[in-house]
Amino acid sequence: CFVFFFFFSRSSAKLVAPLGCLVSRQKHTLPDLPYDYAALEPHINAEIMQLHHSKHHATYVNNLNVVEEKYKEALAKGDVTTQVSLQPALKFNGGGHINHTIFWTNLSPNGGGEPKGELLEAIKRDFGSFANFKEKLTAVSVGVQGSGWGWLGYNKEQGRLQIAACANQDPLQGTTGLIPLLGIDVWEHAYYLQYKNVRPDYLKAIWNVINWENVSSRYATCKK
């Protein structure tokens, strides 16, 4: 049982399913972190991680549950106007939940370095070298105007890796069609308490905690 929404990419409108069935579903919940709040120090401090996870991500989850309940009521009434009016909130809060759920697993206290195996070969094929890839994703992430995300995604139709930026909490797959592998959150709450307004310093540091095993696993899964 699914209700579909239109999200627009640059090239075409795509039909995408929301996080769950709006007629009969369980509420979304905040996922546990796979590590302690202080585990990513000194690169991302415990205060940032606690606020980011327990406050910001939790707010997206709570708001998503509220908007889905309102959508369910509008759907039952056949109130199309309200259904349409709720879609921006669904996209924002649903995207926030999707993006952060990926982000936490993309990080690890045992991360850093370079990926191995098939993912590294694909990066070399599509970007020339790991150093070129790292430079390009950093530049795209630094260049996000205001709040948003830098992404490494997989283009299933073309069978290649691509770098993209998304504004606000726009989910990568729902807005571009790319399957998300690695996301870098460049909202101010992701770094401001530690790095102030110097986003490039945060982006330099985050490479020390990238969980390449998780990114590689995502790549292997989306190729099947």
UniProtKB/TrEMBL annotation:
Record's catalysed reaction(s): 2 superoxide + 2 H(+) = H2O2 + O2
Native species: Leptocoma aspasia
Any Pfam family the entry gives: Sod_Fe_N
Chain ranges of the Manganese/iron superoxide dismutase C-terminal domain: 115-218
Domain Manganese/iron superoxide dismutase N-terminal stretches: 27-108
Family: Belongs to the iron/manganese superoxide dismutase family.
Top-level taxon in the UniProt lineage: Eukaryota
GO-annotated molecular function: manganese ion binding; superoxide dismutase activity
Cofactor: Mn(2+)
Gene3D superfamilies, alphabetized: Fe,Mn superoxide dismutase (SOD) domain, Iron/manganese superoxide dismutase, C-terminal domain
Gene name in the database record: Sod2
EC number(s) per entry: 1.15.1.1
Alphabetical list of PANTHER family matching this protein: SUPEROXIDE DISMUTASE 2, SUPEROXIDE DISMUTASE [MN], MITOCHONDRIAL
Chain positions recorded as Mn(2+) binding sites: H52, H100, D185, H189
GO cellular component terms listed in the entry, alphabetical order: mitochondrial matrix
Free-text function comment from the UniProt entry: Destroys radicals which are normally produced within the cells and which are toxic to biological systems.
Quaternary assembly: Homotetramer.
Keyword annotations from UniProtKB, A to Z: Manganese, Metal-binding, Mitochondrion, Nitration, Oxidoreductase
Principal subcellular localisation of the protein: mitochondrion
Protein location: Mitochondrion matrix
Identification of the protein by name: Superoxide dismutase
